[in-house]
Each structure stands twice: as structure tokens, then as C-alpha cells.
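agent> Task received from the user: take the single chain below, predict its 3D structure, and emit C-alpha cells. No templates, no multimer pairing.
agent> Plan: (1) validate residues, (2) run structure prediction, (3) serialize to C-alpha cells, (4) report one or two observations.
agent> Step 1 OK, no nonstandard residues flagged.
tool_call: predict_structure(input=
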Amino acid sequence: MNADDVRLIEAKERAAAAFMALPGVTGVGIGGRERDGRPTGELVIKVFVERKRPAADLASGQLLPQQFEGIGVDVSELAP
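)
tool_result: status=success, residues=80
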């Protein structure tokens, strides 16, 4: 395992601690980013939610960031 892998795993653990407290979040992992259902090749922190909702429907503290510690964040639906 190289230093980049360790950094990503440690960041994912911190992201999980922060994001799992948000309503509707069902899991946090590491995986490939998808745009319009197609893989982009970018490795990101994956945040799984019960249902994706428009940003306007979320309170400011419930909106997931686009990046966490400089690593991209991708949101996908995954029911519990």
C-alpha cells in the first residue's frame, strides 16, 4: 500500500465519521466517480444516500461538499 492509498483511506474514515451523522446517509466508501451513469476514472469518496435530493431541499448543514480534504466526493443512491 502506498502513501496515496493510506491518505485516501484515512480521509474516508474521517469523512464517514462526519457524513454518517447526516440524515439519509447510508454509507461512505471509496470508489470511482460516475457522471450521467458513466465512470470518469477518478477515485473519490463515495457517499451513499437513501435518495438524492436537490440542494434547495436540504438545510445548509446537510449539503455534502464537492470535496473532502482535497478528495472528490460523489453521491450515489443506496437504500439501507
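agent> Step 4: summary for the user.
The two ends are 31 Å apart (CA to CA).
agent> Done.
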